[in-house]
């Protein structure tokens, strides 16, 4: 099942996506897609990201694989709606896409034990683009600024609540050309291991995101580009433009 949020006549409404693509509200009303403005499916209190979780991506950036999950945060203010424009800031000359499988937290979780199932904490999965100012990432050493510019975290539009965990894949396209594709099975740290690890550092609450890392094939974005990330059959599409002159 797929769920999300849309804006209808200025009102935010939770919806379920029907098999025919129509949208249905909780009170049973059907809404044609053309009448709804897509919103990110959650408003995360935090966006926890995992670096270097695919061996080939670590290699392409010249980085060693970490011995344990490498965590960093993106600011919630970086969230961008599906269909919105990724804005390239004048501070950077090398902004890159990073398609990822994002885990959506469904219930409050804290210090998940080895005996507990981490997947029980999740509402499902959604595509996410961990847009990164690569030159600033190298300059700053830590990742906060490079990852957190406004519009640098598009995700959605839907949450797949019953994903095929064994066969999850992420695919990225730029201007219709495939540039990334990988299976979750190729991750250095599995999805259950990541959820457990993060929960032992911070309390996860409904709507939070865990971005599980990007595979190899990252590259630059330029004004006019269209970038799409697909996970579990859900397609996230955004355009790219320069940051407006101040």
Summarize this entry quickly.
With 246 residues, this protein is mainly β. It has 4 helices and 21 strands.
Question: What does this protein look like?
Answer:
The structure is a single chain. The protein has 246 residues and is mainly beta. The protein is 11% helix and 39% strand. The chain has helices at residues 55-60, 134-140, 144-147, 191-199, and strands at residues 2-8, 11-17, 23-25, 30-31, 37-38, 47-51, 70-74, 79-80, 85-88, 95-97, 99-105, 122-129, 132-133, 153-154, 158-160, 169-174, 177-183, 209-211, 219-220, 226-231, 234-242. Strands 1, 2, 3, 4, 5 and 15 form a 6-stranded antiparallel sheet that branches. The longest helix is centred in the last third of the chain and has 9 residues, at 191-199. The protein is globular and about 50 Å long. The mean pLDDT is 95.
Helix content: 10-25%
DSSP helical segment count: 4
Tally of extended strands? 21
Percentage of residues in DSSP E strands: 35-45%
List keywords for this structure.
21 strands; mainly beta; 246 residues; 5-stranded mixed β-sheet; 6-stranded antiparallel β-sheet
What is the element layout, followed by pairings?
Blueprint: E1 2-8, E2 11-17, E3 23-25, E4 30-31, E5 37-38, E6 47-51, H1 55-60, E7 70-74, E8 79-80, E9 85-88, E10 95-97, E11 99-105, E12 122-129, E13 132-133, H2 134-140, H3 144-147, E14 153-154, E15 158-160, E16 169-174, E17 177-183, H4 191-199, E18 209-211, E19 219-220, E20 226-231, E21 234-242
Parallel strand pairs: 6-18, 8-14, 9-21
Antiparallel strand pairs: 1-2, 1-5, 1-15, 2-3, 3-4, 6-7, 10-13, 10-19, 11-12, 11-18, 16-17, 16-20, 20-21
